[in-house]
């Protein structure tokens, strides 16, 4: 077996098109492969030769996430390596045309994947293929797989004999009406259609024929954005300092877990796996479970107090964190006892019918409200969005927007600067006129009244 020395490098052209250049045989041979995406060049990490982690891209009118693009880059690189390995085993060196043909064949680009036997595949067979292939390629969590399984159940509940050639624009309208008849809110219906079309786009890329108008179909439904729930700063500090009865110590622990997430922006998945080795010199240094982002978050004194409080715990993790479901249940009980009963109204539509649900905050509190609380309180305190994003792992403001609700408190704090500025500026003017003795007396007076 001979070792074929080659070099493969991913790069982005000035027009944003992603390419992979392969050189081998003392750089005498060179082939370039298009990755199939056009991105914003500012979102390219030339050192890692990947799209910047957690960035989003608008491609052909849809949002594409960094993970999807990077997985494609890795897939192309893997196919290139496979071809060179196969040639090495035969003591041969590929030519330009050979490499291009074989790599494209492995990527399924040379010919449609649909062969004679595949034409007999049912839509159910194709869905199973999609689920196994995409779950493996995207390293999906169980939650991600469940979303597609749920979509499939709904589609087959609408038409249990559904096949690809029958999935046309009229069927999409029929599916819309099925959702409405089964009491789904419009917001959920729109979300489920996005999931369905993600499946259908994969079908189209793999050589199957999608009926005209299906991928462009949008249900004509009125959708009102969901109210983002979070604790305002005063509510958060009240919750943090609230004394629970000794017999309800489990509520105190649940509150501490929520507040730690609210002070650091951690998700539940990262809190549950946080290890002592991740706490370094006043920082949290870790890789996120959901997105594999490397984050370094400075601990404020409130977060540090919680860590110190649980110094007694000698497990593998920093905190004794209960399951997600138990923690959410305990949080509702803790928030009710602490009086977090601010009313929240959610307005939504089911078909053409408007609905309003009003509830108290404690009735709906969950772990994820802590992350939103971190974002909103940080902005309310005047922390720049760029700093907030460096803690949450969001790569741009647009991707952070779903977590942001500009609270009344934020506006009050900002607008109050009009009131306080006149006093601050006059105080500074008078301080500049004072001598050291006058400043000393003023300092002693301030200490007494503080």
Automatic annotation (TrEMBL):
Signal peptide bounds: none
Keywords, comma-separated and alphabetical: DNA recombination, DNA-binding
Keyword Nucleotide-binding carried by entry: no
Cited CDD domains: INTN1_C_like
InterPro entries: Arm-DNA-bind_5 (IPR035386), DNA_brk_join_enz (IPR011010), Integrase-like_cat_sf (IPR013762), Integrase_catalytic (IPR002104), Integrase_recombinase_N (IPR010998), Tyrosine_recombinase_XerCD (IPR050090)
Domain Tyr recombinase stretches: 223-416
PANTHER family in UniProt: PHAGE INTEGRASE-RELATED, PROPHAGE INTEGRASE INTD-RELATED
Family assignment from sequence similarity: Belongs to the 'phage' integrase family.
Protein name: Integrase catalytic domain-containing protein
Organism: Bacteroides mediterraneensis
């Amino acid at each position: 077996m001979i070792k074929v020395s080659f070099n493969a490098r991913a790069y982005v052209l000035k027009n944003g098109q992603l390419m992979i250049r392969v050189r081998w045989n003392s750089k005498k041979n060179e082939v370039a492969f298009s990755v199939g995406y056009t991105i914003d060049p500012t979102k390219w990490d030339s050192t890692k030769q990947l799209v910047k982690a957690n960035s989003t891209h608008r491609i052909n009118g849809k949002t594409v996430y960094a993970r999807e693009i990077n997985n494609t880059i890795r897939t192309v690189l893997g196919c290139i390596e496979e071809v060179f390995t196969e040639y090495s085993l035969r003591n041969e060196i590929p030519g330009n045309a050979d490499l291009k043909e074989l790599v494209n064949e492995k990527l399924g680009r040379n010919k449609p994947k649909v062969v004679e036997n595949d034409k007999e595949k049912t839509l159910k067979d194709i869905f199973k293929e999609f689920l196994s292939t995409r779950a493996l390629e995207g390293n999906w969590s169980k939650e991600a797989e469940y979303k597609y399984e749920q979509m499939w159940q709904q589609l087959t509940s609408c038409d249990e004999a559904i096949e690809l050639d029958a999935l046309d624009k009229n069927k999409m309208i029929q599916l819309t009406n099925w959702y409405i008849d089964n009491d789904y809110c419009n917001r959920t219906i729109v979300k489920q259609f996005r999931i369905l079309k993600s499946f259908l786009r994969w079908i189209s890329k793999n050589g199957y024929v999608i009926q005209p108008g299906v991928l462009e179909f949008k249900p004509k439904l009125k959708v009102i954005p969901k109210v983002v729930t979070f604790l305002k700063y005063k509510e958060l500090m009240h919750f943090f300092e609230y004394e629970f009865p000794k017999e309800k110590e489990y509520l105190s622990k649940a509150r501490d877990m929520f507040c730690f997430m609210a002070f650091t922006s951690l998700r539940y998945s990262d809190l549950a796996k946080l290890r002592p080795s991740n706490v370094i010199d006043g920082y949290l240094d870790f890789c996120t479970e959901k997105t594999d982002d490397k984050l370094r978050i400075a601990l404020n004194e409130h977060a540090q107090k919680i860590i110190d409080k649980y110094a007694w715990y000698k497990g593998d993790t920093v905190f004794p964190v209960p399951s997600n479901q138990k923690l959410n249940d305990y949080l509702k009980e803790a928030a009710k006892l602490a009086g977090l009963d601010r009313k929240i109204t959610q307005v939504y539509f089911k078909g053409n019918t408007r609905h309003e649900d009003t509830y108290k905050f404690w009735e709906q509190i969950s772990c994820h409200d802590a992350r939103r609380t971190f974002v909103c309180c940080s902005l309310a305190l005047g922390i720049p969005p760029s700093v907030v994003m460096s803690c949450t792992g969001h790569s741009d403001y647009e991707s952070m927007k779903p977590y942001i609700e500009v609270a009344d408190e934020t506006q009050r704090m900002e607008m109050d600067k009009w009131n306080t500025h006149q006093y601050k500026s006059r105080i500074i003017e008078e301080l500049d006129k004072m001598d050291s003795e006058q400043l000393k007396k003023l300092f002693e007076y301030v200490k007494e009244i503080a």
